[in-house]
TrEMBL record:
Cellular location(s): Cell projection, Cilium
Protein name per UniProt: Tetratricopeptide repeat protein 30
InterPro entries documented for this protein: TPR-like_helical_dom_sf, TPR_rpt, TT30
Key words of the record: Cell projection, Cilium, Cilium biogenesis/degradation, Coiled coil, Repeat, TPR repeat
GO terms for biological process, alphabetical: cilium assembly; determination of left/right symmetry; establishment of planar polarity; intraciliary transport; opsin transport
Keyword Repeat: yes
Entry's family note: Belongs to the TTC30/dfy-1/fleer family.
SMART domains in the record: TPR (SM00028)
Main function: Required for polyglutamylation of axonemal tubulin. Plays a role in anterograde intraflagellar transport (IFT), the process by which cilia precursors are transported from the base of the cilium to the site of their incorporation at the tip.
Repeat positions for TPR: 40-73
A GO molecular-function annotation: intraciliary transport particle B binding
C-alpha cells in the first residue's frame, strides 16, 4: 500500500469510494482502525465499503460497534438491521429491527420485518406486516407482487410490478420481476423483451461491468459482487435468459448467456449461477456439474430445483446408488423440494434396480392417475372450444401439454424395464396400450419405431420414422430470397443420425433402395451446405448412416462390401473421425477379425491392404479424439494415452497382423 501524505487521508479515502475501489479503501481503513479502534469515521466508512462489496457480515460487525458507541444515531441501527438481513442472519435481524420502533423509522421497521419474514418463508406474517403500510407506498405494491408471485398468482403479481414501475420509473430489479412472471406463465417472448431491456440498460449505464466480453474470448478481471452489480439486475437477467434458452432446448445460447454476464471469480458466484452453470454444461463437463450441485446441497440456501435436478441427473447417468444415498441423507428436503409426482417417479426409478416388477407396478399406478387427469383436461378443452373461450382454451392446453409430458416420461421409464431385458414384444405391448393418448406425439412414434426395428418389422417402422423425418425434409434451396421463412425450417440434420440410419436400413431391408439413396443424397446436400458455411465444423450424420449400412452388410457376412463402406464413410478423416464414428467402425473390424481367426471368412489381399491403410490413417488423425466417453464419476479413469483412437487403431492393426500372419 502506498503511503498517504499527511492531510490527504480523507481525500484519498473518498476518492477511492467515489471510484468504487472499495477493497483498497477497506485495506486502508482497517489499518487506521488498528490505531484508533473506536474511530467513528473509520467504522462508518468501513461498514459502507463492506456493504457495497456485499460482505454483509463484516458490514454488520461495523454497524454493531457503531450502535454501541453512538446509540443516539438512528441510522446506524437501521444499517445494522439491514446488514444482518442481507447476510441471512434473520433471527438477529428481527431482533435488531425492534430498536427502530420509533416515529421516524416505524415504516422502515415494518418493511424490513416483512422482508425478513418473506425470506424465512413465513408468508402470512410477511403479508400481515405489509398490510400495515400505506397502500399508495410503491414498496407496498412491489412487495405485495412478490407475495402474489410466491402464491402462484403470476398474472396478478405481474400487474403489481407493472404498477410499481409506473410509479418508480425504470428499476432493473422490478423489470426482472416482470420478466420472471412472464417466464412462469411460459410467455417467453415477453420475458425475453424485458430481459433485453435490462441488459441494454446495464451496458449503457455501466460499461465497466464487461458484459459479453468473456464470450468474445477477451481476458477480463472479476468485477466482484458490488452493490452496483446487484442494482443492475444483470446477473438475474442473464440467468433467466439461460433458463429460457434451456427450456427451449437452445443449449448453446444458454451457455452463452452465462458467459455473457459480468465476469466474476468462481468463489464469488451466487448459488443460482453455479446451479445453471452445472446444468447447461452437464453434457460436456459432467464431473464438474455433479461437484457443483453436491456443493450447493450442503449450503444453508440453494435454488429449490437443485435437489430434484441432482437426483434426476444421477439417475440419467445411472448412478442409482448415489441417488438413493442423497435421497436417504436429505429426507427433510423431500417434502419441501420434490412434488408428489417427482417423488413417486424417483422412487419407482430407484426400485427398478432391485425389484423391477414392483417398479413396473408403481409406474403403472402413476400412469393410471395421469391418464385420468389427461381425460379430464381433454374434456375441459372440448368444453372451452365449444364455449369459444380462448383464454380458458389456452390455459387448459398448456396444462394438458405439461401433463402429457409427465405421462410420456413415466411411460418410457416403464418400457425401459423390458427394453433392458431385450423383451421387445412386451415393450411394443406397453406402447400399444398408450396409443390413444400418445399417437400424435413424436417421442412416442420414435420409440415405437425403434421397438419395431429391433423386431425386424421394417415396413411398420418405416411409416413411423418417415412421419418424423419428412417434417425436416424440404427445407433447402426452396427459393433464393435470403429472408424467406422457408430458410428457417428445421434441417434434416436436426434429426438424430441413428434415426436416419435406421430409416435407411429399413428401406434397404424392404427393397426400397431408391428411397434410401434419395434420403442419403438429401443428407449429403445439407452437409455440403454446412461445410460451405462453416468449413471447420464436423457433421457426422451421413457418416453414421453409411457406418450403420456397412455394419448391416458385415452382420450379414458380406465383409468385402461392408468394410469398404465403413472405410469410405470416414473420409475425410479430419472431419469424420470422432468418438461415435470410431465406435461403429471398430465393431465391424473386430467382428471381421473374430471370424477370420475362426477361419469362417477369407478376405482378398486388396481388402486387407485397404484395412491396414485405414487403421494407419486413424492413427494419424485420432491423436486428439477420445476412443470412449468416460463416466463422469469414474473412480479409476482410463490412462489418458490409452483413451485415444490412435491407441485403439494400433491395437486393431496389431491384431490384423497376428491373424493374417504378417508379424511372423
Amino acid at each position: 500500500m502506498t503511503t498517504i501524505k499527511d492531510g490527504e487521508f480523507t481525500a484519498t479515502i473518498y476518492k477511492l469510494i467515489k471510484e468504487s475501489h472499495y477493497n483498497e479503501a477497506i485495506h486502508i481503513l482497517n489499518a487506521q482502525l488498528q490505531k484508533h479502534t473506536k474511530s467513528r469515521a473509520a467504522l462508518s466508512l468501513l461498514g459502507y465499503c463492506y456493504y457495497h462489496i456485499q460482505d454483509f457480515s463484516n458490514a454488520a460487525d461495523c454497524y454493531e460497534q457503531l450502535t454501541q458507541l453512538h446509540p443516539e444515531v438512528e441510522d446506524y441501527k437501521l444499517y445494522y438491521a439491514q446488514s444482518l438481513y442481507k447476510s441471512g442472519a434473520f433471527p438477529e435481524a428481527t431482533k435488531a429491527t425492534f430498536a427502530l420502533d420509533n416515529s421516524s423509522n416505524h415504516t422502515k421497521m415494518l418493511k424490513l420485518q416483512s422482508c425478513i419474514k418473506y425470506c424465512e418463508e413465513d408468508y402470512s406474517a410477511a403479508k400481515s406486516l405489509l398490510e400495515q403500510l400505506p397502500q399508495d407506498d410503491p414498496d407496498y405494491i412491489y412487495n405485495l407482487g412478490c407475495l402474489l408471485y410466491q402464491d402462484g398468482k403470476y398474472e396478478d403479481a405481474c400487474k403489481k410490478f407493472m404498477s410499481a414501475l409506473q410509479v418508480l420509473g425504470y428499476v432493473p430489479a422490478l423489470s426482472y420481476n416482470v420478466a420472471l412472471c412472464h417466464y412462469s406463465l411460459k410467455n417467453y417472448d415477453q420475458a425475453l423483451k424485458h430481459i433485453g431491456e435490462i441488459i441494454d440498460h446495464g451496458i449503457r449505464q455501466h460499461p465497466e461491468l464487461s458484459v459479453g466480453m468473456a464470450t468474445e474470448g477477451i481476458d477480463v478481471h472479476s468485477v466482484g459482487n458490488t452493490l452496483v452489480l446487484q442494482q443492475t439486475a444483470l446477473i438475474e437477467a442473464f440467468n433467466l435468459k439461460a433458463a429460457i434458452d434451456y427450456q427451449l432446448k437452445k443449449l448453446k445460447e444458454a451457455q452463452e448467456a452465462l458467459t455473457d454476464m459480468p465476469p466474476r471469480a468462481e468463489e464469488e458466484l451466487d448459488p443460482v449461477t453455479l446451479h445453471n452453470q452445472a446444468l447447461v454444461n452437464m453434457d460436456t463437463k459432467p464431473s464438474e456439474g455433479f461437484e457443483k450441485m453436491a456443493f450447493l446441497l450442503q449450503q444453508a440456501s440453494f435454488p429449490p430445483v437443485t435437489f430434484g435436478n441432482l437426483l434426476l441427473l444421477y439417475c440419467k447417468h445411472e448412478y442409482f446408488d448415489l441417488a438413493a444415498d442423497v435421497l436417504a441423507e436429505n429426507a427433510h428436503l423431500t417434502y419441501k423440494f420434490l412434488s408428489p409426482y417427482m417423488y413417486e417417479f424417483l422412487d419407482a426409478l430407484l426400485t427398478c434396480q432391485t425389484a423391477p416388477e414392483e417398479a413396473f407396478r408403481k409406474f403403472d399406478e402413476m400412469n393410471a392417475k395421469l391418464t385420468e387427469q389427461l381425460r379430464k383436461l381433454s374434456k375441459q378443452l372440448q368444453e372451452s372450444r365449444l364455449a369459444r373461450d380462448d383464454e380458458a382454451q389456452k390455459k387448459t392446453l398448456a396444462e394438458y401439454d405439461l401433463m402429457h409430458e409427465k405421462y410420456i416420461v413415466v411411460l418410457m421409464a416403464q418400457a425401459k424395464i423390458y427394453w433392458n431385458r431385450e423383451n421387445f414384444q412386451m415393450v411394443e405391448k406397453i406402447f400399444r396400450k398408450s396409443m390413444d393418448v400418445c399417437n400424435e406425439y413424436d417421442t412416442w412414434k420414435l420409440n415405437v419405431a425403434h421397438v419395431l426395428f429391433m423386431q425386424n418389422k421394417y415396413q411398420e417402422a418405416n411409416g413411423l420414422y418417415e412421419s418424423i423425418v419428412k417434417k425436416h425434409y424440404d427445407n433447402v434451396e426452396q427459393c433464393n430470397i435470403q429472408e424467406c421463412p422457408c430458410k428457417c425450417k428445421p434441417s434434416i440434420l436436426n434429426v438424430s443420425a441413428v434415426v436416419l440410419a435406421n430409416l435407411c436400413v429399413s428401406y434397404i431391408m424392404t427393397s426400397q433402395n431408391e428411397a434410401a439413396e434419395e434420403l442419403m443424397r438429401k443428407i449429403e446436400k445439407e452437409e455440403e451446405q454446412i461445410s460451405y458455411d462453416d468449413p471447420d465444423k464436423k457433421v457426422f450424420h451421413l457418416c453414421i448412416v453409411n457406418l450403420v449400412i456397412g455394419t448391416l452388410y458385415c452382420a450379414k457376412g458380406n465383409y468385402d462390401f461392408g468394410i469398404s463402406r465403413v472405410i469410405k464413410s470416414l473420409e475425410p478423416y479430419n472431419k469424420k473421425l470422432g468418438t461415435d464414428t470410431w465406435f461403429y467402425a471398430k465393431r465391424c473390424f473386430l467382428s471381421l477379425l473374430e471370424n477370420m481367426s475362426k477361419h469362417m471368412v477369407m478376405l482378398r489381399d486388396a481388402v486387407v491392404q485397404e484395412c491396414i491403410q485405414f487403421l494407419e490413417h486413424c492413427e494419424v488423425y485420432g491423436r486428439e479424439v477420445p476412443a470412449m466417453i468416460e463416466q463422469p464419476l469414474e473412480e479409476s479413469p482410463v490412462h489418458i494415452g490409452k483413451n485415444t483412437v490412435t491407441y485403439e487403431a494400433r491395437l486393431v492393426k496389431a491384431l490384423f497382423y497376428e491373424v493374417i500372419g504378417w508379424n511372423k
